[in-house]
Each structure stands twice: as structure tokens, then as C-alpha cells.
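Recap from last week: sequence in, structure out.
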Amino acid sequence: MAGYVPLEVEQFSTFTRVITVKAANGSFQNLQGFYANTIIRKSYYSEHSNTITTVLSDASNGEITLSMTAANTGLLTPGRYVYDVVSTSNTGIRQRLIQGIVVVNPGATH
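Predicted C-alpha cells:
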């Protein structure tokens, strides 16, 4: 089952968040041999989506870094969104690692 991690993004600001994924037994999940991608949508049923840059920053210890540039956060309308992080192995096995709500707070300076 995917872990739940809420995110908060400041519009027009650089966003970075490091998340560590753990296996059911509490050990760090080894993500070597996988790549991951993250999508943010206004709702689960929205056709339009935005991508959050996803890097396996320490794959053997389950560490994932999510980021967006200030220009990209500026494209988001303030409000609530949903997101998930999905990993895919080189053999095509997919799993949802993390999911949650993203709150985008408005910015006055841009």
C-alpha cells in the first residue's frame, strides 16, 4: 500500500521535498533498478496534469527527491490537488509508492 505524505507548495517559489520510502517491515525500500515519476492533478479524474521532477536521490535507501522550479509552481492555480509517485522497474513492474494531497498556496510576488 502506498504511503500517504501531504505536500505544501508555495506558488512562484522553488519546491523541493525529500521523502524516504519504507517497506512494510519498516526497512528502507531498495529502489535500485527503478525509475519514478510524479503527477499532480486537480482531481483524480482531471485530464490536465503537471509533472513534479522526481529523482531517486539514494535508491538503495528508498530516498526520493521531488522538485519544481519557481516558474513551474507559478503555473499552478492555488488550491488543493492530488498526486502520486509511481515507480517502474526495468522489467515493467509498476508500484505506487506515495500518494497524497498537495496544497498550493498563492504568491503575491512573481
